[in-house]
Amino acid sequence: MSAAWLDGVSHLVFDWNGTLIDDIDLAVASVNRCCARFGAEPVTRERYRREFGFPIVEFYARLGFDFNRHPFADIVAAYLEHFDAHVARCPMQDSVAELLELAAARGIGASVLSASQNSVLLRTLDAKRLLGSFQHVVGLDHTHASGKRDEALALQARLALPPADTLFIGDTLHDCEVARHVGWRALLVETGHQDRARLDEGGVPVFASLAALVQALSAPAEAGEPS
């Protein structure tokens, strides 16, 4: 892959958690606080990344939470209480600035689409001094943890571009599903909430990191590569 691969792309849409911000350790810690509180076995980072997925209710079921004893809404509230209080302290993934600069140099816009609550998302982006880097920032206005398909469709309407002109960069199979639902292109990075074995099921390019993506997109076009 080289920079020519971005030909025809007018806009990048980024997932947030795990893709732009390195919050996997906080997520695991927040889940384990819920495990301790609601009587489930603690999880390792490896199991978390092996099991994580949308809808989140099914993820918690796989982890052994008993919704007859503890309503799912109570578990989500306990998770968010810890996660939202600490997420702004998480580091950004490597090469976020370089990727945004590369896109801007090619006249490609950028937005964020996240399953985080919109208020927390905006506050964290502001804390990272990234709020002005994105044309649109779209999060959730509820805590149902059901995914972000509806939000993606709303963002597509705001972009007013042919869907195939947008590339969605994420870290989970749900991001692939969202992209297909809207008609966007997609690629994934393996620095986030699902492991490589899971991501390979998505049928889209998978990169080790944003840094690896930047390196690939900065490479000269190879002979015979489509332009």
Automatic annotation (TrEMBL):
It catalyses: 2-phosphoglycolate + H2O = glycolate + phosphate. SUPFAM superfamilies: HAD-like. Pathway: Organic acid metabolism; glycolate biosynthesis; glycolate from 2-phosphoglycolate: step 1/1. Its EC number is 3.1.3.18. InterPro entries: HAD-like_hydrolase_sf, HAD-like_sf, HAD_2, HAD_sf, PGP-like_dom2. Transmembrane segments: none annotated. Pfam families: HAD_2. Belongs to the HAD-like hydrolase superfamily. CbbY/CbbZ/Gph/YieH family. This is phosphoglycolate phosphatase.
